[in-house]
Amino acid sequence: MHPVTPHTGSIPTLRAQELGVREALRKSDWPRAGTLLRELTATQVERLLDRSDPKDVPVVFRLLDKDVAVDVFAAIEPRQQRDLIEGLQDDDVQELFGQLQASGQARLLDEMPAEVAQQLLASLPGSQRASAGTVLGYPAGSVGRRMRPVLIELRSEWTVAEALDAIREADIPERRQRFIARLPVVAHAHQLQGMIELSRLVTADQGATIESLMDTDVLAVLATEDDETAARLCAEHDLLALPVTDETHRIVGLLTVDQAFDILEEEESEDSQRAGGSTPLAQPYLSTPVKRLFRARIVWLLVLAIGAILTVQVLEVFEETLETMVVLSLFVPLLIGTGGNTGNQAATTVTRALALGDVRPRDVVRVLRRELLVGLSLGATLGALGLLVAGLVYSWDLGAVIGLTLLSVCTLAASVGSLMPLLAKKIGVDPAVFSNPFISTVVDALGLIVYFLIARLILGI
Amino acid sequence: MHPVTPHTGSIPTLRAQELGVREALRKSDWPRAGTLLRELTATQVERLLDRSDPKDVPVVFRLLDKDVAVDVFAAIEPRQQRDLIEGLQDDDVQELFGQLQASGQARLLDEMPAEVAQQLLASLPGSQRASAGTVLGYPAGSVGRRMRPVLIELRSEWTVAEALDAIREADIPERRQRFIARLPVVAHAHQLQGMIELSRLVTADQGATIESLMDTDVLAVLATEDDETAARLCAEHDLLALPVTDETHRIVGLLTVDQAFDILEEEESEDSQRAGGSTPLAQPYLSTPVKRLFRARIVWLLVLAIGAILTVQVLEVFEETLETMVVLSLFVPLLIGTGGNTGNQAATTVTRALALGDVRPRDVVRVLRRELLVGLSLGATLGALGLLVAGLVYSWDLGAVIGLTLLSVCTLAASVGSLMPLLAKKIGVDPAVFSNPFISTVVDALGLIVYFLIARLILGI
């Protein structure tokens, strides 16, 4: 038997296959493309679809073997699933849909127009429809939407041997076996009493009772809890599975590590895209149609451009001052740029700290005190430099204006930048929505006012 | 027995305890603080330290019970560990250090001055020093630095029953048991042959051989592989543990899910802080001293401010044009702001896609084609609007200047914004280092040149 060859590159590149498939598609050589695709695992095909031009996605999908197609369909993002479905026959759609887990069905239904969603739901057999219905009963963004079903429940009065027998008898399908690495222990009516890791069962004395071995000081979340919060708990406490319960302490599902990973990855992508001033794409970049990229960006650009009209108006107010001293206009980009950068730094740091739970809205006074100090220090350093450079090159009066403006703008920007995400969180909006570009726009207008007021005062115009 | 009470808030707030401890510390009431602290688990104390003022951290730490202190020390960031160590006795330091896993020891040593690191390493007993040395032998940022030791290796010729016996006999300490959810199967000399999940062993026929059950189509990484790449593989393929090997296919460790979570969380924090234009903090916000926040930000601000002097010079070149038509200066913040925002959007999207492996440097042509299209569409939309508004309020000549400038700047910004991260990755720099503020600065200067050239052309000045 040969040893395993370790993977040495980055995420498996499969460059040859990918290029081959793309080449075959361009030549409309379907048999060749099909042959190449059949050499790939479902995960590899998923990767390839994530990197395919949007128009190629349905073509590739139709060339797949049925069982691979089902796995691939389950693995891609709901938005990609929706795009795919549009080009398929109703029968195929219903079959693919029926193969998804209840949580996957719920996420796809959220993406579909209401009437199509109704039809799809109606196409499911009774029991599946009921599970999908339960999941759909939890609000979007809740952990109830993302949890996995409980495959087996243990009883505290059982011995280890009895528990292991029960696990064997449960006849769990192979591809779901890895989700039983941490198991719930329940009393009557599915009341959660504790959790136990499978490894503990394997290593413990076979005659010991579950009660004597299980963790009873267990973290659990309500099914209505925010999915990101639940996923972070999972990560922070190194849990293989986090139990999800209803208000009556009944276990209704498990958030497994793999789901926690997916949730956190989605959240990070959303936060990062919002921080860059666009609407989250919710699908891989290369497989996103250009017109969808456009739509994700134009709304915020328009809002920001309209906000920036404020700066035109501020400058108009000070037009006379500008006419008297055109040299003042030379520093406008530098000053508002520095303000924007300082605001960005503070906003990004606080937004991330909020996401990690390191900072909470009630810490507003502590955060503000720190950012005022940081902003003042940054402003003093940059201001001294500005004073010196502008003073030497132009005049000491102008130097004083630039220096004082930098001091004020940095202090202002750090404070505004740190407060906005806290405010957003407080009123229940994603802190990343008050994103860096938005803060820059506010700081730009305020900074210009400060600049011209200081200029008028010192230069006496 | 009472059912488990699900946790309903966000990450456990422990507000009462936290306020109590902070109050006791302020009053220098050490016994009271100690009593409150002893009610908390190690994870809860870690959370509290993450949210404590830097000056309180060593005080809290000294009040902990010894066993809790060891767990807390292992859980906090290396930078926090270093800060703590500075205030402790040599004996205590050596003991705490000795309790860390080899990977934790290596990370802490990286934070320490060379001579202190030497002393600490020398304080370890022989076998521990050897493991720490092995880990230190892998480059910083490699998965070899973060992997966990292999606790047990299975043999392909064993039966399931024999494997389970071997696991029991290995006598794995309880707190490490959860790391055996996925086990390596090896031949002579630790050659990796396959992997098997513990759940598969439990559910399979006790007489079956490991060979017939194990996964042989196994993903593995070299110990020198980048830790983020390895962690993403773990996440993408839903692995409970990813085997780490050397060049001769010998297994040298396992990247377990909990470690993968930690690595990804650190990387996301770094990327987000870099995207905001600051040096990553590598420790929680509230426990970071203000002067460290200052240092993390001032360098980039200075670099960006010096870069922005370019805009002053560009404007100086066009000072005559500005004197002739002061109205042109009114639009400067709006135009460069829009350019900066468009560049941000493209840069953030591409940086994130690179981090996820959705895009690779060799996709440069595909990315550029897409971003040119998106930039043109965004520019056309905003340009049309700019033409209309500036045309109606000022003059159609000026409207044409604003409209054309927006069209050009958006196209330029989207292209530059998308190319920079790809270029960074290509030359082996973290793409997030070419962060949004940096791109804005470049786009600002280029945008101003375009603006004044178009103005001169159309307005004939």
Automatic annotation (TrEMBL), chains A, B:
InterPro entries: CBS_dom, CBS_dom_sf, Mg_transptr_MgtE_intracell_dom, MgtE_N_sf, MgtE_transporter, SLC41_membr_dom, SLC41_membr_dom_sf
Assigned keywords, A-Z: CBS domain, Cell membrane, Magnesium, Membrane, Metal-binding, Transmembrane, Transmembrane helix, Transport
Subcellular location: Cell membrane; Membrane
Membrane topology recorded in Swiss-Prot or TrEMBL: Multi-pass membrane protein
Pfam families: CBS, MgtE, MgtE_N
SUPFAM superfamilies recorded: CBS-domain pair, MgtE membrane domain-like, MgtE N-terminal domain-like
Ranges of residues in domain CBS: 214-270
SMART domains tied to this protein: MgtE_N
Transmembrane parts of this sequence: 298-318, 324-342, 372-394, 400-424, 436-459
Protein's job: Acts as a magnesium transporter.
Protein family: Belongs to the SLC41A transporter family.
Assembly and interaction partners: Homodimer.
Protein name: Magnesium transporter MgtE
